[in-house]
Every structure is written in structure tokens, then in C-alpha cells.
Give the backbone structure.
Amino acid sequence: MSKQRILSGVQPTGNLHLGNYLGAIRNWVEAQSEYDNFFCVVDLHAITVPHNPATLAQDTYTIAALYLACGIDLQYSTIFVQSHVCAHSELAWLLNCITPLNWLERMIQFKEKALKQGENVSVGLLDYPVLMAADILLYDADKVPVGEDQKQHLELTRDLVIRFNDKFGSKDKPILKMPEPLIRKEGARVMSLTDGTNKMSKSDPNELSRINLLDTPDQIAKKIKRCKTDPIKGLSFDDKDRPECNNLLTLYSILAGKSKAEVAVECQKFGWGQFKPLLTETTIESLKPIQAKYHELMADPSYLNSVLKQGQEKAESVANQTLSRVKNALGYLTIN
Ligand code: TYM
């Protein structure tokens, strides 16, 4: 039997943080040998909010290099750039025409981001989930590994599959494949270092709120030293009353590769003065090999270019077939 297909992606908006790594990429790496994987750098999504043209290309390289540095293995996985495969924009347009406007208006991320931008909200931001659906559906993905915040977008993708197949396919001949979200419990929602009730995010203006994968040891030490804690004696997992403590212990448990039960026992009598240096050391050590590999890769642009070129070809060959299937179902004229 052939392997199930996975598709996922990250936006090239600045640096990756621990939330992106623990919520998404680490899980891609762990499961990659069991699946046929497509990982894209979603640069079309990156311009749905105001962006800097001077840094977009470099940021795209950075994310592709970080995929490899985190352990994505080309033996099992294809890495490519979303804008290099035109089918993404085209399928997004076709899906737009069957997506009810009110499905998009109720998306939580749209509402949150739109609130931050006031008057400047683009049609692209509203349309973000349709483009994401196109990303997934072009590859007939069985599973989509993401963090908790993407759950609603995946539900929309699933609703679009039902709607499209109902209108243009038949029960025994669905046109689009139904994908399943793959959301791991641990790390699915890494919280901000400065507010344990908010998720860690690239768009938070406070740099101290997140640890980036490329932060230096000094930056990591500073951020953990200044992160929000609570005055309660002893440390415990308690997401209701101690959100910061719960988040920091969770980070420690994942990065140290220890179970929650082990960490609960180890840290129950610790004060913050004892715990923070331990978390700092563990974080620095976990990121060290990723950073070393990243710098090695960035020193050889021709290798990275060849990875992305091959990725583009492989992705195109799959995506174009799905696009043709969809266009046929919609009744488009074809000439040979
Ligand atoms: P992006 O770049 O915002 O996030 C990339 C991945 O990181 C996860 N994530 C988190 N996980 C845990 N804790 C956090 N604090 C945290 N912050 C972010 C996100 O859930 C995501 O998995 N819309 C997608 C990009 C995308 C995509 C796709 C994903 C575009 N097309 C197709 C899957 C399939 C996004 O959120 O990117």
C-alpha cells in the first residue's frame, strides 16, 4: 500500500519561533518516514498583511533552510515555495467562487488580524483560508500537521471539500480528497513568555514574548530571565490558575524529552531561580544543532536553490494533475 500524503507550511514572515517548531515542524520531522510529505514555504500567504519586499526572498530562504536544519529529510519529503507553483493561486480562485462570504467572515484569525489592522484589511487576508485550502487539496493530502490555531481553517477546508464534491462530483467519484488535521496535544499551543494566556506569535510587537529558533544563547537567557512568572511556591502544571508556569514547564518537558509526570516530580520543589537557568540551558542546547546546520546551509545557496528547484518540479507534477481534475469537473474547455 502506498504511503499517506502529508502537506503543511509556514509563512516566511520573519523568524520561526518555538511555537512554530513545537506546534508544527518538530511533528513533521518525527513522523516523516511514515508518510509522503510536502512542506511548502507559504510566501503568498505572507503578503496578506503589509510586508517588506526587500526581505521576502531572504525570509523565504531562511524558512526553507530551517526546514532542513530542523531535520526534514529529502528522502521522505519535498520542500518547495508556494509561489513557485502557479496552481496554488489558480485553485484558490476556483475555490473562491464556491466559498460563501460568511464562512470567511467568521474565521477567528481573520477577525483578530483585521482588528489589529483597522482600515487597511485586504481582501487577501479574508481569503487566506481559501488559499490554505488550495494548498492542501492540490496534493490530495490525507493529513495536515499544524498547531491548534489552524483548526478552524482546516474545518473550513473540509467544508469546502464537501461542498465542491456535492456540486461537481458524485458519491462514488469525489473530485477533492478529504484531509484530516493532525494536531498533537503537547506543544500545539505554545504561549507567550510575557503573557501565559496569549499564544506565542510572530506578530507580537514585544520581542521578549517569543524565543526564535535563531536566537543567540544570550538572547535566550535574557528572554527567559525576564519572562512572566507567578509568586506561588513550587512549580506545577496548572493551565487554569498558573498559565505561565504551565507553559514554561511544558516547554521544558518537550525540549528535555521528559514526560510531564517526570517534570512534575523534578520541579515540584523548585523556585524560579532554580528553574529558569535549567530551562535556559535546555533551550540553548536543543537549538544548538539546528542553528549549526542552518548556518552551514545558508553558506551554500546553490544547494538550497537546487532543493527548491527539485521541490518545485515534484510539487508541480502533483498539483497540476489535481488542478486539471478540478477544472474538468467545473466544465472548462480544454484544447490539446
Ligand atoms: P504560520 O506561519 O502562522 O504558522 C506555522 C505553524 O506554526 C503553528 N503555530 C503554533 N503552534 C503552537 N503554538 C504556537 N504559539 C504557534 N504559532 C504558530 C501553526 O499552527 C502552523 O502549523 N496558515 C498557516 C500556514 C499555511 C498552512 C497551509 C498550514 C498555509 N497553507 C496548508 C498547513 C497547510 C500558518 O498558520 O502559518
